[in-house]
Amino acid sequence: MKLELKENLNNYLKAEKFTDLLQVQKEVFPILLKNDDLFCQSPTGTGKTLAYLLPIINNLDKSKNNVEAIIIVPTNELVQQLKNQLQKLNKYFNFDFFAITKNLDYEWEKRKYHKKSKIIVTTIEKIFALQNKSPIDYRELKYLIVDEIDMIYHFKQLDLIAKFVKNLRLKNKITYAFFSATLSGDLQNKIKKTFKINPKLIDLDNKLTKKVDIKLIKVIENDKLQVLKELLESNEINPYFVIIFANKNEEVKKIYNFLNKNNFKDIRYFNSDLNPRKRKQVFNEAKNEKIIYLITTDLYARGIDFNHVSHIINYDLPIDLNYFKHRIGRTNRVNDLKGKIYLLFEAKDKQKIDLIKAKNENISFKN
Fold first, then answer.
1. Nearest 5°: CA angle at 69, between 68 and 74?
2. Sign of torsion over alpha carbons 160, 247, 250, 273
3. Cα distance between residue 93 and residue 87, in whole Å
4. How far apart are CA 24 and CA 46, in angstroms?
5. What's the DSSP call for residue 163?
6. Domains of the chain in sequence order
7. φ, ψ for residue 267 (rounded to 5)?
8. Taking Cα atoms as reference points, which of 342, 352, 363 lies closest to residue 219?
9. Rounded to whole angstroms, how far apart are CA atoms 178 and 176?
10. Measured between alpha carbons, how far is 213 from 242 in angstroms, rounded to an integer?
11. Distance CA 241, CA 258 (A)
12. Tens-binned pLDDT, residue by residue, of the chain (367 aa)
């Protein structure tokens, strides 16, 4: 099917050096154009964000003063990332949008909210609170997009989204679209029952998944910090941007303090203990390539696009093994450099590694 894009969007694609739409974009576009509900499972780094932004923006009716699309994501960092993407698109299309973040004062947010931007990007808690305190009319809403839906479900926020939509008392049918790299059958069934919809399914997991080799590094006698130090100082790693994943906030801080003590430079950490201002600072430093070593939890495993990640180090395996696919997807993305991936493991991790192998045929582990 040939996609008819408006001239200004074609100009954007040319400026960004897109010679053609990516596979996920080609498949999503006609479904959203027809206003069909959608599930989309596609690997990290395959272009899911533009897959839903392009048809929405292509179809905006700027003659009306109304909200046409709400895009819900799980974290403030993803709100910021989408804001940056919309700013690029806005140079060619000139539409109003509002990215609701967590560090703005309520009166400013309320004024901006009531201007009824064409597209609102938000976390569900933020828009739910705003709509409760100072509601606006959503009778002309066309799209509700939920990105990283499995993380939102993990945060137990799916019912909050359903409650938000119910409170809007919509008169017209809206189009629902749910996106993630991991969208299980159980979650699909839960969404169908919650929203009373029967979406079309695009599943590109097997078609677009790349072969990934992960180097295993065995930790003996519980000396993981020392093993990490030796790895980072070895000839294996010529660092440009290294992301080190740990499970707990206190573990992240422990690794950060240890590497600082051992004179590693340009190092930052990111976890949920940081206040919004500090989180934004670290995010911007990472985007602007001012960090060499970033220690983080799985907050940075989902959807964040850094195109310069040279190394991923799994200090430990995630508690939820679905996050492993998202972690390693921070490198080797579309048009990205070739990154190396490592896993520090102990004897107790063998069963989890076997489970990852069984669920992901594209992942191979090498000692």
1. 160
2. negative
3. 10
4. 7
5. H
6. 7-206 (3.40.50.300), 210-366 (3.40.50.300)
7. -120, 140
8. 342
9. 7
10. 17
11. 18
12. 456 777 888 888 888 888 788 899 999 999 998 899 999 999 887 889 999 999 999 989 988 899 999 999 999 889 989 999 999 999 898 899 999 976 557 788 888 999 989 999 999 999 999 999 999 999 899 999 999 999 999 889 999 999 999 999 898 899 999 999 889 999 999 999 999 999 999 999 877 677 888 999 999 877 999 999 999 999 888 889 999 999 999 999 999 999 999 999 999 999 889 888 888 899 889 888 899 999 999 877 766 677 788 899 999 999 888 888 888 877 765 455 578 899 999 989 999 999 988 888 888 888 8
Give the neighbor-by-neighbor strand order of the sheet with 69-72.
97-99, 119-122, 69-72, 143-147, 175-180, 38-41, 200-203
Q: Kindly report the pTM of this predicted structure.
A: 0.83
- Beta pairing partners, 144: 70, 176
- Nearest residue to 175 (alpha-carbon basis) of 186, 189, 167, 165: 165
The CA-atom distances, in angstroms, between 304 and each of 7, 71, 128, 279 are 29, 16, 24, 13
Sequence-ordered list of residues with C-beta below 8 angstroms from that of 266, at least 6 positions apart, any chain: 290, 291, 292, 293
Count of C-beta atoms within a 10 Å radius of residue 362:
13
Helix H or strand E encompassing 356: helix 350-359
Q: Is 352 exposed, middle or buried (0-12, 13-18, 19+ CB in 10 A)?
A: middle
β-partners of residue 143 are 69, 175
Distance of alpha carbon 297 from alpha carbon 205, whole angstroms: 24
Residues 6 or more apart whose Cβ sits within 8 Å of residue 363:
212, 214, 328, 356, 357
User: Tokens in use for 85?
Assistant: 């993407």
3-state secondary structure of 342: strand
